[in-house]
Write a structure and sequence with these properties.
single chain, 368 residues, alpha/beta, D-Maltodextrin-Binding Protein, domain 2, five-stranded mixed β-sheet, 44% helix
Length: 368
């Protein structure tokens, strides 16, 4: 979820590129080709249905692939695995792709633009804070001082003709979990600046929040399925097959989020909320998956609303301009250079019966 911290990773990503001749470890299953998808997260919780549901529903096996979905930490760590040859595709933040291509010349290419930037400024439902202007003199809780939301907010303030310093806005690092919740309850902070899944977890902890979202934030592409340019050009059938599974899983999850949660619990039982009854566990995980599905649905609309995963170069133009103005990158590339140049890519990804997928989801056919 971070846009920052990318600059510090430049050297070791470049080193990983040098090591790119390493052969990706593969274990051929009978009649199925092994593929590794590295995901920029530490835990494959319910917030990643596009990457976990294809396993539960057998979508990738139907395509002839045995896919190993591996949580590897940050988006940058996932890209490191990609350029070192230890992964075939990655699910990462779009900003990490831009940084890798602009600063490190790594030729990482977007296969699918799944979601949009889903950060928000969250305040108590009864707070008098209604807009960015109302943040003057306030303290905002953040994961860390280099978290992605800080440059997003700074950029929005700059467009208003001010800065956080000029407006007397301060940032207090409060991490994740209980501390942000406690900080807001105790009045140590006036607002929280976090991504959607984190805010969902705060709501699960009992906070009644109202979100303030500058309109431009959700015009930036974010979570994306990506691969190296050489893989896209030499192994396009595999790339399309994996992307199609992601698209089908997205359609399924949106059609029946509760079923998607139950499938998650069956395959990854350790991710089910602990210490609460079944109904509470479902409510909590539905809050998290709904936050992700809203992001995926907005990504679909942002890119035309006709083909799942379609990536609009205009979105990447806006994103790279923001990153440059925020001082995260120091250059610009032709926007369409970020995209995988596979002919008829999105037509091929969407070559499935979405109505049939939705009907299966409503019936929750694969659920226990």
């Amino acid at each position: 979820m971070t846009l920052i911290g990318l600059r510090t990773a430049a050297l070791w990503i470049a080193a990983a590129w040098i090591a790119g001749s390493m052969v990706s470890p593969r274990a051929n299953a009978e009649q199925l080709r092994h593929v590794i998808l590295a995901v920029g997260t530490s835990v494959l919780n319910v917030g990643y249905p596009m990457d976990t549901l294809p396993l539960s529903l057998g979508y990738w096996k139907e395509e002839g692939y045995d896919v190993d979905v591996q949580p590897v930490g940050s988006s940058l760590q996932a890209i490191q695995q990609l350029v070192a040859g230890n992964a075939d595709l990655v699910q990462v933040n779009a900003a990490a792709i831009v940084q890798s291509d602009v600063t490190n010349k790594l030729s990482v290419r977007v296969v699918m633009a799944n979601g949009v930037t889903d950060w928000a400024i969250a305040v108590p439902a009864d707070s008098p804070i209604r807009s960015l202007a109302d943040l003057k003199g306030k303290t905002i809780g953040v994961f860390s001082v280099v978290t992605a939301g800080v440059p997003l907010l700074q950029h929005a303030l700059k467009q208003m003709g001010t800065t956080a310093d000029a407006a007397g806005i301060s940032f207090l690092p409060v991490g994740l979990g209980a501390p942000p919740v406690q900080a807001l309850r105790r009045g140590q902070v006036d607002a929280l600046l976090y991504w959607a899944a984190a805010l969902a977890s705060f709501r699960n902890a009992g906070l009644d929040l109202r979100d303030i979202v500058p309109p431009e934030w959700r015009t930036y592409p974010d979570y994306s399925l990506a691969t190296l340019e050489r893989t896209a050009s030499t192994d396009s059938n595999m790339v399309v097959a994996i992307a199609r599974g992601v698209a089908k899983a997205t359609v399924y999850a949106i059609a029946n989020p509760e079923c998607a949660v139950r499938l998650q619990w069956k395959r990854y039982p350790d991710t089910k909320p602990k210490g609460v009854d079944e109904a509470s566990a479902m409510r909590m995980d539905l809050n998290i998956i709904d936050a992700q599905l809203s992001t995926l649905a907005d990504g679909f609309k942002l890119n035309g609303g006709k083909q799942w995963g379609a990536a609009d170069p205009g979105g990447f133009a806006r994103l790279q301009t923001f990153l440059k103005e925020a001082g995260i990158t120091n250059g610009l590339l032709p926007p369409d250079s970020y995209l995988a140049g596979i002919p008829n890519l999105y037509q091929r990804i969407n070559d499935f019966d979405a109505g049939k997928i939705r009907a299966a989801a409503r019936a929750c056919e694969a659920a226990p």
